[in-house]
Specification:
This is non-reducing end alpha-L-arabinofuranosidase. One of its GO terms (biological process) is polysaccharide catabolic process. Its EC number is 3.2.1.55. This protein has 502 residues and is of the alpha/beta class. The chain is 25% helix and 27% strand. It contains eleven helices and 26 strands. The strands form six sheets. An eight-stranded parallel β-barrel has the order 3-4-7-8-9-10-11-12, surrounded by six helices. β19 and β20 form a beta hairpin. α3 crosses α4 and α3 packs parallel to α5. 49% of the residues are buried. The protein binds alpha-L-arabinofuranose.
């Protein structure tokens, strides 16, 4: 059996977890909106046509913020099409996904849904085919109380209270040649500068997110971030990162090492933000919004064969297996380990489209990736301890050296809880892990959850929704200040400790 040591010190902290790192994303894409969160006529729909079963699962996940309405979709979107009387809303082509958008669901319906989901809205504006004028108008519609054209229009549409949206994405993946209205870094930097300036003139309480690179493989990665920030540093609060991973070569150790890639990606973007900060002698720090991350590859082939110009097709419907859940668990650990700089992150996406939640006419069910997200979101709140992992390593094809063990400890001082999240990536051997926790006198283990399966490719389905699920772990001990646990081969684990009541 391999052995590993996890080292923490109560005084060595990464930083406080911003709960928004447990955000998610709903795009007008496939069946995310239609049949996902909204399905009037369904036996699960409430009086607004919102699926109650989905809302219940989203509330379980405790998703504090949801990005909307895209994604690639937003770069051609006219938000005005999706407000007002439903029978007057136009159906439009969506060139991004080559489908028909009926506009039956729009921003007001989404704001209602988010309220019921107990989430904040992170709204994206169209900087592809539109620009600052459109951003100004949608902000007025959403955040102004009354007495102006767009605020009164919202009231006329039946929404008396402003939506008061605080977080705004200025465009989506504008570096990507696939993006409608794709721009060079200089063009986008100027567009974001003027859009951010205008939006903050309208409402100084909002925060803005500028587009970083669409992924680490973009040829312009690095120079894009630097140029954009050099132009619009003052108008921006966060820089976005997007990254999806896939086990295309069926090389699981390499796939599981993707969290190393994610870790390096985050560190690189932090360096670029700080480089521009130093060059421009700024006091303000730009933090990161990792607003699209997940596994995405299972549905790629099927999507190529889908008919075009239909409504809400089964697009991007990845069915996640057990090893995907292991990687999602590792990616969450990576986000936590960067809690000092990653303040927002969105699991892309939330329902039906590369999602933890799937729906059909008979109900909603949980994919494998639902579980690491659920537990990390619920118990990964507090302060991240600087967690040193001393574990055996292996050589991965894509990322070089990777640790067999990913781990992080989060200390919730308010609740007097300490939680360890860990992934043993070793496919052959269990691992004995120890951690000196003498500083946490009076703590005891209150919960140990494990996600594992004998088959790395096992999936949950509508018919068999609990094939891959979390089960209580055994054998973990916290004695005389020393935590010891045997982490089974290829497993995700959560060990939650709490202080004894005095
Ligand atoms: O989440 C699916 C798509 O991935 C989004 O629309 C786009 O931003 C990214 O390329």
């Amino acid at each position: 059996m391999k052995k590993a040591q996890v080292i923490v010190d109560q005084h060595f902290l990464v930083g406080d977890v911003d709960k928004r790192i447990f955000g998610s994303f709903i795009e007008h894409l496939g069946r995310a909106v239609y049949e996902g969160i909204y399905q009037p006529g369904s036996k699960f729909a409430d009086e607004e046509g919102l699926r109650r079963d989905v809302l219940e699962l989203v509330r379980q996940l405790q998703v504090p913020v949801v990005r909307y309405p895209g994604g690639n979709f937003v770069s051609g979107y006219h938000w005005e099409d999706g407000v007002g009387p439903k029978n007057q809303r136009p159906a439009r082509v969506d060139p991004a996904w080559q489908v028909i958008e009926t506009n039956e669901f729009g921003l007001n319906e989404f704001a209602s849904w988010a309220r019921k989901a107990q989430a904040e809205v992170m709204m994206a504006v169209n900087l592809g085919t539109r620009g600052p004028e459109d951003a100004k108008n949608i902000l007025e519609y959403c955040n102004f109380r009354e007495g102006t054209y767009y605020s009164d229009l919202r009231r006329k549409h039946g929404y008396e209270e402003p939506h008061n949206i605080k977080l705004w994405c200025m465009g989506n993946e504008m570096d990507g040649p696939w993006q409608m209205g794709h721009k060079t870094a200089e063009e986008y930097g100027r567009a974001a500068q003027e859009t951010g300036r205008l939006m903050k003139m309208m409402d100084s309480s909002i925060e803005t997110v500028a587009c970083g690179s669409s992924n680490l493989e973009m040829p312009t990665f690095g120079s894009w971030e630097e140029t954009v920030l050099e132009i619009c540093y003052d108008q921006v609060d966060y820089l976005s990162l997007h990254q999806y991973y896939g086990n295309r070569e069926d090389d699981t150790p390499d796939f599981l090492a993707s969290s190393v890639g994610m870790d390096r990606f985050i560190s690189s973007v932090v360096s670029i933000c700080d480089c521009v900060k130093a060059k421009q002698r700024k006091k303000k720090q730009i933090n990161l919004s990792f607003d699209e991350w997940n596994v995405w590859y299972h549905s790629n082939e099927a999507d190529e064969k889908l008919p075009k110009w239909v409504k809400a097709p089964h697009q991007l419907e990845d069915i996640y297996n057990f090893e995907d859940a292991l990687l999602v668990g590792s990616m969450l650990i990576t986000l936590l380990r960067h809690a000092d700089r990653v303040k927002i992150a969105c699991l892309a996406q939330l329902v039906n489209v590369i999602a933890p939640i799937m729906t059909s006419d008979t109900g909603a069910w949980r994919q494998t990736i639902f579980y690491p997200f659920l537990y990390t979101s619920r118990y990964g709140r507090g302060t991240v301890l600087n967690t040193v992992v001393k574990a055996p390593v292996y050589e991965s094809r894509t990322y070089g050296e990777a640790s067999y063990l990913d781990a992080v400890l989060v200390w919730n001082q308010e609740q007097e809880e300490l939680t360890m999240f860990a992934v043993n990536k070793d496919l052959e051997e269990d691992m004995e892990v120890s951690c000196d926790l003498r500083q946490f006198a009076d703590y005891r283990i209150v919960e140990h959850q494990v996600l594992t399966h004998t088959d790395l490719k096992a999936v949950n389905t509508e018919e068999n929704p609990d094939e891959v699920t979390v089960r209580p772990g055994s054998g973990a001990r916290l004695e005389e200040g020393k935590l010891t646990a045997v982490l089974g081969k290829h497993s995700w684990q959560m060990i939650r400790m709490a202080r004894n009541a005095r």
